[in-house]
Amino acid sequence: MKNVGICRMVFPCVSETFIVEQASHLRRYHPTFVVARLLREVPFDNVKLTAASLWGWQERLFWLTRQAGGRARHEALRRLPLLHAHFGRDGVYALALAEAIDIPLVVTYHGFDATASPLALWCSRGLMNYQFLLHEAALQRRAAAIIAVSDFIRERLLAKGCPPEKIIRHYIGIDTAKFTPAERPADERYILCVGRHAKRKGIDVLIEAFARIAARHPEVALVQIGAGALTGELQALARRLGVAGRVRFLGAQPHARVIEWMRGAEIFSLPSRTSRSGDSEALGIVFNEASACAVPVVSTRHGGIPEAILDGETGLLAPEGDAVALAEKLDILLADRGLGRRLGLRGREFVCEQFDIDTQTAKLEAVYDRFAA
């Protein structure tokens, strides 16, 4: 069995379980995580730290000089036939490391790294963003392959000047054996939303839409799982619209609990929209997870979402930022539960066909085979 180095500067982030899931389903490659800061233990015994601290002077010198320094002396890294970096920003770091130890690099672009405007990245004042802006073109030229997680991201990469022959569109899979339909209907009726409390997720639009239909469906609640800087604003909005007693903010939840809530939901809704920076939803793995549970999805025609949700077939899509249109879509499914069940079952079928993690990870390993030293 070959090894592959999985590069992520800070790992594992709460919202990035897909990286662990993808690595866990590799069958012909053994993952070695190459990280700068390990936030907590992961289910792998082969994590190799590349630095004691992301913010130490050695790291700053590395970023400024683009030299891998002592990292290249790690024999464990030298034995890797391939590095796979997640996110373009991390790819800039991984490129220097890969070239220092003379192995190929594959980089996956997941969203903001392809959609956020250069001005927004520059104004963020983040050192990693500055390095990304300075060296992204070189990264795209010198990496062995650039993986786009959707056709939408592929088009954005092409618009940025990425060589088309370098781009491989590859959907990240989800575990369809873990995300399964409920055996029986839930005891309560609720719309589920799972997402960070960030403007781009459109949770405020969902609350406004729910307030418009709440009186017609008094037995239905809105359950929101997630946390973030806008929590207070969202709770205040629910109070102002008179639905605070019907909107339940559960905060961040363990992955297993999220699955339980998802399986019992009547509808899943996350109406994402384009942020001021241009950041957009690349695909939305959470939509595939809901569909795998045979839950119909109501979302927006935004970013890569139409690749995950087939409008009128596995869910219903509204224009982004339009609370009135979103309310109409929710109302349709709450009033016609048979339609919701049909959309949900077709969603499960679609995800098993297109996004099953074993199938998709096997395709990823085929990409590794093409470039592994």
Automatic annotation (TrEMBL):
<dbReference type="GO" id="GO:0016757">
    <property type="term" value="F:glycosyltransferase activity"/>
</dbReference>
<dbReference type="Pfam" id="PF13439">
    <property type="entry name" value="Glyco_transf_4"/>
</dbReference>
<protein>
    <submittedName>
        <fullName>Gll2197 protein</fullName>
    </submittedName>
</protein>
<feature type="domain" description="Glycosyltransferase subfamily 4-like N-terminal">
    <location>
        <begin position="16"/>
        <end position="177"/>
    </location>
</feature>
<dbReference type="InterPro" id="IPR050194">
    <property type="entry name" value="Glycosyltransferase_grp1"/>
</dbReference>
<dbReference type="Pfam" id="PF00534">
    <property type="entry name" value="Glycos_transf_1"/>
</dbReference>
<dbReference type="InterPro" id="IPR028098">
    <property type="entry name" value="Glyco_trans_4-like_N"/>
</dbReference>
<feature type="domain" description="Glycosyl transferase family 1">
    <location>
        <begin position="182"/>
        <end position="349"/>
    </location>
</feature>
<dbReference type="InterPro" id="IPR001296">
    <property type="entry name" value="Glyco_trans_1"/>
</dbReference>
